[in-house]
Amino acid sequence: MASGQRGSEQVYAVRHARERGPGPGPVRDPDIKPRDERLRTMRATITRRVRGFTLVELMVTILVGSIVIAGVYSIYTESMRGYRVQNHALEGLGQLRMAIRQLRADLRSAGFNSPAQSNQENWVDTPVGVVLSAVAIDVDPDPQVPNPSVNQNIQPQRLRLLGDFFAHKTYTSEMVSGTTVTLPWTPADGDEAAFNRVFNNKRLLRIETYGVARREQIIPIQSASFNGGLLPTITLQEPATGITGFGGGHEVSVLGYVRYRLKRDMRRDTESTKWDLVREELDGTGKVVSGTALIIAEYVIDLQIYDICLNVTSPESGTMRQVPVAIQCFPNLASLAASPYTLEPSASNVSHLLRGLTVKVSTRAPFEDEDLQFAPRGATDAPLYAFDVDPEMKGAARVYEMASTVTLMSVQARRQ
Q1: Model's pTM, two decimal places?
Q2: Where are the beta strands (DSSP E) in 226-353?
Q3: Residues of 47-83 as b/e, b for ≥16 C-beta within 10 angstroms?
Q4: How many angstroms separate the CA atoms of 282 and 280, rounded?
Q5: In angstroms, rounded to a whole number, what is the distance separating the alpha carbons of residues 52 and 56?
Q6: Bridge partners of residue 356, in order along the sequence
Q7: Taking a C-beta distance cutoff of 8 angstroms, is the pair 104, 128 a contact?
């Protein structure tokens, strides 16, 4: 048995020697690769990792990148365009709100402490040949519209108002003697600058007296003196009549005209296509008082008065009461002109019948939008959507409009 075991060991040794190969050395593990083979494998791996894109991969990358950039740019340009349009809209609406607010305030004050129509109010005395009316509307004889052949059916109107727009209060006379009226004055009434802002030779002084019957005298102011705040005096162009005693205790107020119209802005460019809505003062004869023009809104292209409502019942003599009430409304100034009534600045003006009206202001964007298609206005009372500032340029300027209906409260208050 020992000899059989020894023979088996010899056979195993011979077989193992054959597998190991000739010569001395460790037995090679078949799972471990030689060094040279490992180096070749590493070089191949590194070569695959550092090689560049193929031409097809590069072209696909450029195409995808171009599409992404074009999309981002398109979104950016549309966003900027939307921002400009929105910014112009906000600016235009801001201009409109300012204009409508000022127009409403002055329309409500028209006729305040002043006649509504001096020809109809028989207790009112005015200078010979002077007729005073609270509201007068007419079409501007000098159309303030650039490129009228393109911007059709745009006929801006003018609005003239009479009232106490400067002090909004009634004073009590200290003394009235001939052409001199003396007023009490306190620091609460203001300083000399405040006095001169109210009393000057471009305005009218109203003196209201009560005796057997009510009487109002409207006389132009010739000059005014503050006198250091101690009993200021106003000198009139004509003497006040019917004053008894020293003339103390009579109601005194200051009247004047203001007018709204479109005016070309030539402060920077005499060829400017920019028009503004201005509020300017007029003297007793209807002439513009220099240096009083105040810009109410910029880039205005139209001012319209419509939906004019009158109480057409004839006023009672001496009281101006109108009973029963018979309201008749006219859709625009042209339809009013075709009726027996008028609001033009003339002796036939019917401001005393006026009860309400609607005023509309239209402004444009400062610049034209090349994506906006211009369409001319169909009629003078139709909505206005676009305005052609320069016919040689593509597109048009966007138009923004705002309207407000106003009740003539001060005119109504003249009813006795």
Answers
A1: 0.80
A2: 233-236, 251-264, 275-282, 294-297, 300-311, 327-330
A3: eeeeeeeeeeeeeeeeeeeeeeeeeeeeeeeeeeeee
A4: 7
A5: 12
A6: 309, 407
A7: no
Residue type present at position 2 = A
Q: Which residue has the tokens 């939906």?
A: 307
d(CA 282, CA 284): 7
β-pairing verdict for 175-177 and 180-182? antiparallel
Instruction: State the residue for tokens 């072209």.
Output: 59
The two tokens of residue 48 are 């695959």
Query: What are the pLDDT digits (tens) for 263-298?
Result: 999 887 777 889 999 999 999 888 999 999 999 999
Q: How far is CA 181 from CA 100, 198, 232, in A?
A: 37, 15, 8
Residues 403/358, Cβ–Cβ less than 8 Å: yes
Tell me: the pLDDT tens digits for 73-125? 888 777 777 777 778 788 888 999 999 999 999 999 999 989 999 988 888 99
Q: Are 105 and 168 in contact (CB under 8 A)?
A: no
